[in-house]
Structure formats: structure tokens, C-alpha cells
Amino acid sequence: MKQTRLTEMLNIRYPIIQAGMSWASSNAALPSAVTNAGGLGVIAAGPMYLDAFRDAVREVKQKVGDKTFAVNLPLYRPEAERFLDVIEDERVPVVFASQGGPKAHLARFHALGTRWIHVVSTLEHARKATAAGVDALVVVGAEAGGHPPANGVSTLVAVRRAATEFSIPIVAGGGVADGYGIAALLALGADAVQLGTRFIATRESGVHENYKRAVLETDIDGTTLVGIRQLPIRMTKNAFAQAVLHADINERDQAAYEALFASSSLRQAALEGDIERGKVELGQSAGLVNDLPGAAEVVKRLVDEYDAAIRRLIE
Asked: What are the tens digits of pLDDT across the range 240-256?
């Protein structure tokens, strides 16, 4: 598989990154499996207690040896500074950060040799992060699960624009579940591809079995963007999503709208298995996923599919 500026920067074999996903990769099992298979595994710190997070970091370090792994941290979360202290103490080699400015943290972690990769969904945020001095960007398109850009710009367009505007490495995110998609985004100028939904549907993923089955049952048109008056979320078209879609248009009372939006959570779906009323955050690429293999098998399959895509172009 093609080596890129990012594989060289991070010393990873393949330009394949498992997205940091709350509960799905808030453990050691999934990130270590991906890293040991040649990709970059990412621990999702977002929903974790501090002690559990520290334990997961240490377990991944023990399982992967000198291979590179990463941590994803939303900077807005309570106690973010204490999580950053653990990242510093444990000498985590790569930080993926989002939902907050990186500038205040970069000198501290660059002094350790830690690479800082910032997740963005708009050109405005990409420009600010680049000016602050981050090492790379994750550029997320509208196909992605969770919090894609509210402007609806696709990964195809967003990544190509970022690759032409910014000189630092670009990680593409959104709409990819196989090696053919990886080949396409590398051809557009990306230096690696981040996959989320594909890795939710693996044996090592920490979400409820109902959530994993939802990936298999969701087609390419089975997700929708809800909460356009809040922070929009791409999720399955379940009962909660239908209620919010109706309220997006018809609810005039903002307080009532916010109460409805807050009445459901990702935890409800990912940890408790309520896929009708919980926020089942999935990308459009769920429609390309139809099995629940181990994470290492997924990485191998992605490489094989990438090779097949390249052969198709040159034969």
C-alpha cells in the first residue's frame, strides 16, 4: 500500500486510521488490534473516566510495543486538562483533538515529540488549526457519522480543496468503508483515510451488539442529519431521529426543541443498546458494511481492496 507523508511522520505501515469513537474505541481492544495490523488505532477518551482512560492507554502500550497508537480527545469535555496530563505522563505518540482550539497545547506536546492532529469540518476551522501549528488535519465530509459539517459539503470536495490549500498532511474522513474508497481519497491528495463506521462493526468494538447490528441493517440512504438548530448529528432514521426532524421544521419553542434533542444520547444507543430512541451515530458508509469480522481482518481486507482498486486502474 502507498506510503505517504503521514505514514512516514507517524511510522505506521498503512495510511489507515481507525477513528476515535465514543464507546466503540473507548477501550484497549480495538485500537491495539488496528495498530498491530499496521494501521493507526485510536483510543476515544470522550466518554471515559480518568482512571479507565489511563488503564486503557497503558494496556494499549503493553499490547503494541513500540508501534504507534493515538488518543482522541474532545477539548471541550470536563477535565480535559487532566486527560492531557495523562497523555503527557504516558508519552502518547499521537493526539487527535476536536471541538476546541489547539494553540494553547501545542508547545507542550511538541516538546515531547507528540504529533497533534486536529479534526475539522470546515475550511475556517482548518485554517485556524493550521495557523496554530498542528501537524496534520482530519478533514471530515458530510457523509460521516457523528458530527459532520452542517454545510453539507462532501468528503470528495472537502478533501480535494484541503489538499490544494494546505501544505500539512490531510487525513480524509467520511463515506469510506473499503479499500476502493481509500484509493479514491489518496488519489485526491489525502495522506491517510480515517474509517469509523467500518470499525464499529468489528468484534473488538465496545458498543452494544444492537448497535453493531444496526450498522449491518442500515443502507446507504438509512442515515439522516438531525439537530440542525443544535450541533447536527448524522445518525440512523430511528424514532428519535424522526421526532427531531419534525421538530427541526415545526417546533417554534427553542427550549422545547432543546429538551427534545437532549432527551436522547449516544450512550443510550452505544452502551445500553436502545437503537430506537438512542442516538445511533453512523455514516452513510454503513450501507457498504455487511459483516462483523475482527479488526485485524478488516485492515487486511482494506489493503487487499486497495490493491484491487489500483490494479483496476492500471490494467
From this structure: 999 999 999 898 899 99
